Amino acid sequence: MSARPTAGKALRLGLLFAAAGLALVAMTAPLRLAPEDLRAVYAGPPETWPAPEIDPGVAYVELAPRSLPPRPAPGSAAEARRALGERLFADPVLSASGQIACDSCHNRRLGWGDGLPRSLGHGRQEGPRNAPALFAAGAGLPLFWDGRAATLEAQALGPMANPVEMANADLGTIPPRIAADPAYPPLFEAAFGPGPVTLDRIAAALAAFQTHLDRPTRFDRFLAGDSRALGDLELRGLHLFRTRARCANCHFGPLLSDGAFHDLGLSFLGRGREDLGRYAVTGLPEDAGRFRTPSLRHVARSAPYMHNGIFPHLPGVIRFYAGGGGASARLPAAPGPVETSAATPSPLIRRLDLSPDDIEALAAFLEAI
């Protein structure tokens, strides 16, 4: 009877050593692994996967499924706020012209963006930036490409006042316009209780709606233990994402974002589309050219990409990073600290040796997250 446990223990140890050996091979020579071997090293929970290739100083958090906020109970005040926010989000009454709604630039059928490099607003004016996707809007990441809003309530008022977007010169004119529609006062009372329609209540309703836009992904299922949620090509892309492609230095954790700001070499300093990003908010020279790391959840649905929408497809984004980022700045003869910073990409951006097959695998993985 004692031989059987001993044999079973030996078998378990053998399997453990085999998995460890495959993980070591995956770290040192990932492209030599057959699909079934790569699948074996990613069969367990993320803490058993091959170690990611992360630079010193990066506060990496392992990839994990996002815990989505629960939908409010039917009939509750919270659900009334969410439903009111959904209605307001689609109503152009929020704009001075009565023609621009939130969903003009954040359309659910276009990945909560608008499919344009840069959004069109009041009087068909083109704004300077791409409309960010909203899937993770309520997750606590900085809002806007330059992070100028910390909460959804604060963010909601920005487009309403922007002369290029909704163009309300006086935000105080918005509540009376909404209250004049007889359908709205009862909805506000159900959501907030007795009281007038106010900007604070409008912003709170919009925030409640945007908190619940995210949905589970195939990658969430894979992370939760469904090993067949990713195909072989996508799995190879996952491994590259965490290792040689260096994506996980900025895109990690459940939200696939570090919540920080980085200079990718796309400030276009001294050129027609100059945008110094975070610097306009903080006034700190070191922030010149830095933009928020967006969440990559549902990224395949939210083209085009980057703060100015210059990349229409994901393979182009991957090739951009493989090339070491951008070199868009045009420095003056005697650059100061701001110009120097705007022309200095993040040290996390490096040239990469990625083959066309690698790019295909990475793009396939991004389609699943």
From TrEMBL:
GO terms for molecular function: cytochrome-c peroxidase activity; electron transfer activity; heme binding; metal ion binding. GO terms for cellular component: cell envelope. It comes from the Bacteria. Residues 80-189, 232-369 form the Cytochrome c domain. Coiled coil: none annotated. Keywords: Heme, Iron, Metal-binding, Oxidoreductase, Peroxidase. Transmembrane segments: none annotated. Pfam families: CCP_MauG. InterPro entries: Cyt_c-like_dom, Cyt_c-like_dom_sf, Cytochrome_c_Peroxidase/MauG, Di-haem_cyt_c_peroxidsae. PROSITE patterns: CYTC. It is found in: Cell envelope. This is Cytochrome c peroxidase. It comes from Rhodovulum visakhapatnamense.
